[in-house]
Model the fold of this input.
Amino acid sequence: MKNLPFVVTLVVSLVTVFVCGEFLGFPWWLRLLTVAAVGLALEAVNQAVGRARAGRRAR
Done:
C-alpha cells in the first residue's frame, strides 16, 4: 500500500463528525473545522510515510 486509501479518510471523518456531535456537542461549524484538521493531519502522516519510504528505497 503506497498511499492511505480515500476510504480510510472518509471513515475517519465520519467517525469524527459523529463523536464531536454526539458526545462532545460541537456545533456544525466546529465539527467542520475538526474534520478539516483531522483530514490535514491524515494527509501529513501520509506524506511523511511516503517520504520516509522513498528515502529508504533511495539508499
Summary: Helices lie at 6-22, 28-58.
